[in-house]
Design brief:
The protein has helices spanning 18-35, 44-56, 61-74, 78-86, 132-148, 155-164, 167-184, 253-274, 311-326; strands spanning 92-99, 129-130, 199-201, 204-205, 210-214, 228-232, 238-245, 292-298, 302-304. With 329 residues, it is an alpha+beta fold. The protein has two domains: 1-56, no CATH class; 57-326, no CATH class. A five-stranded antiparallel sheet has the order 3-7-1-8-9, sandwiched between helices. The longest helix is centred in the C-terminal third of the chain and has 22 residues, at 253-274. Mean pLDDT is 79; it is low at 1-18.
């Protein structure tokens, strides 16, 4: 009986290309040559890696087609967003395309993969994605910093801080806590009426991935012997960010307006300062300050498409739309 190893012999056009497998094999061979200190092969591994990465950036028709099919099902269009917010008082939506300024890394959940650190992918189309929950978690952290400062990182800490304040300061702090819960819901494990929050994020997909290598060095010998392979979305790849705000229960226009302005500020902080995915402290997961096809929708107002081309413009247009929201009844 013959056992077919799909990870060792993928057909062309599937997610794991043969070129990736050949790359890993040859790279390890060259690394072995370097460790054996063979004279003319000292830099062969690094040269081979650079050449492979240059070739890996070529468009993959199969990956592009999978991405297009996934996007049709996973990401709403402008028309979809406009129709949704038109029927819900106090609702609004933000959508724009951005370009990565640095690689995006995020640990996948596959039990077995050719790489030790595969990127997170959609289970059906196997498109590399930023999950909706990752967007919401990142925005929540950025919003908390904007509301409470860097010292407060959890809902429980914010509540304890409010209880320790003087009477004159408590009311303002409570308003901020209510806004955080209104937008993002309550953290798990907190004794509070459950709510998922008004913000609903959609996943972001990318077309291409590539393999990066980090090689931790021994402090004594200053030499790395255990290279770690990481799958990532390379810089200059484009993705689409989409968010929908849906009020629950009684709608206060002033609350919807305040949430829109805070969200726009959090989006800028997340993509230009914090980063998305893993290894953010190393500068990964950041976006360029150049937006395409950006728009903000509310029931009576539409902004963008031609006027929003930076994150600062996004904040300005969000403020303008927020002013119209305040006048809705």
């Amino acid at each position: 009986m013959m056992i077919y190893d799909t990870f060792a012999a993928h057909k062309p056009g599937t997610r794991r290309q043969t070129s990736t497998l050949e790359y890993l094999k040859k790279y390890k061979e060259h690394k072995s040559d370097r460790e054996n200190k063979e004279p003319n092969k000292k830099n062969t591994a690094d040269q081979f890696r650079s050449a492979w990465l240059a070739g890996a950036k070529r468009p993959d028709a199969a990956a592009t087609q999978r991405y297009k099919e996934w996007k049709k099902l996973a990401v709403p269009t402008y028309a979809n967003l406009k129709e949704m917010v038109a029927h819900i008082p106090g609702s609004w939506a933000i959508q724009f395309s951005f370009t990565l300024a640095s690689p995006y890394l995020s640990k996948g959940i596959e039990a077995f993969d050719i790489l030790d650190n595969p990127i997170v992918r959609d289970k059906v189309f196997e498109v590399p994605i930023v999950a909706a929950s990752s967007w919401k978690g990142g925005l929540r952290a950025a919003a908390m910093t904007s509301l409470f400062g860097e010292d407060i990182q959890t809902y429980a800490q914010a509540v304890r801080q409010a209880q320790s304040l003087k009477a004159g300061q408590t009311q303002q702090w409570d308003v901020r806590i209510q806004q955080l819960v209104r937008m993002f819901g309550v953290e798990s494990g907190i004794e509070h009426d459950y709510s998922a929050g008004r913000l609903h994020c959609f996943p972001t997909g990318f077309e291409q991935t590539q393999c990066e290598v980090i090689n931790p060095h021994n402090r004594a010998h200053r030499v790395g012997t255990m290279p770690i392979f990481l799958e990532c979305v390379p810089a200059d790849q484009k993705g689409t960010f989409t968010m929908l705000y849906v009020p629950l229960g009684k709608v206060e226009p002033i609350d919807s307006a305040a949430d829109l302005e805070l969200c726009a500020q959090a989006v800028k902080a997340l993509l230009t300062e914090w980063g998305i995915g893993a290894k953010k402290s190393s500068g990964n997961g950041l976006a360029k300050d150049a937006l395409q096809e950006a728009a903000i929708f509310s029931r009576d107002q539409e902004a963008g498409l031609t006027t929003i081309d930076t994150f600062d413009k996004l904040i300005e247009e969000a403020h303008r739309v927020a002013e119209t929201l305040k006048g809705q009844q």
